[in-house]
Fold this sequence. Notes:
six-stranded mixed sheet; alpha/beta; 397 residues
Amino acid sequence: MSIRERLSGNEAVANAMRQINPDVVAAFPITPSTEIPQYFSTFVNNGQVDTEFVPVESEHSAMSACIGASSAGARVMTATSANGLSLMWEMLYIASSLRLPIVMSCVNRAVSGPLNIHNDHSDSMGARDSGWIQLYGETNQEAYDNIIMAIRIAEHKDIQLPVMNCYDGFITSHSIENIELIEDDKVKAFVGTRNPEHYLLNKDEQIAVGPLDVQPFLFEHKFQQARAMRKAKEVIREVQKEFYEMTGRQYDLIEEYKMEDAEYAIVVLNSTAGTSKEAVDRLREQGIKAGLVKPRVFRPFPGEEIANALKNVKAVAILDKADGLNGVGGPLFTDTTSAMLVNNVTSPKAVSYIYGIGGRDVRVEDIESVYKDLQEVANEEKVIDVYRYLGLKGGRD
């Protein structure tokens, strides 16, 4: 029997961490993720977990401590946002290259500068190719569920890669929603215990961690990482199936909303999917066949699944809460259009929208305007304006 609660996203994630009871949590505070280690430290202080909580002097130190603890064989978790993730940059690559199953909540926030503490996806998108699996959650419920599944995904014997649990700062992290918690004993049984094959504290096997890796070896080690990332799609689905059997909550690599007969579609991550669903419902009432595709996983990228979902639409807008600054479009746009090309899906005309930078509000009416633009795009012989902005003051110029 699930436990009904009203919690913020950060409270929900901290409670999931309490239920998991990791061996080590090393963290440094940064808005809007600060509450996660704050809440969790109270669980440590109250004796509700026996975790070794390590308060450090920076986010670089936090990930360094996580790497050391995970290398020693511990189950390790942390949390950060924005500039904190940026300060971890060197260590993100080291954690993934050492195949350490660290689980980190990334509470999405704009990366400076100029300084902004509000939500966009520039932090996790900047780290999208650092070798971390990335899960994205629309709601508090998904943020809670994702971090529990992340443990199983990261520690799977064929994966052994770190996982980011990404959700929107303030919008999801601080807003209170109804949520269903899983009983403590079920969570503990689901995640089990970490049983590493190789670890520093194994007295029966002497190993070195992070040695010099030169021309004869590095290429092959990077290939092993890439192979594990590809394998992760299958493992994520296996874990999602087991999670459904335990909770009745069904997830997949992507979520399709009213896509069965959709002619116009939006692809979007995280909390804006909720706003977009409301827009879809309104447009459906007007007879406009609108639909939505929400990737729940960004790394590994579910390219085949997204391309298949879009194959019958006339026009698609891919919305990014981070500008790729590449002159082409946002990161979700470039990955989606590449996936369509690779999977021979050439029918929908595609446009890129950059939106919500620095926490700029996005209303249902804004999303409706995108769908109305798509009706014009579908009738154009050639899409003239592919790289677009939504809600920019004074227009693009």
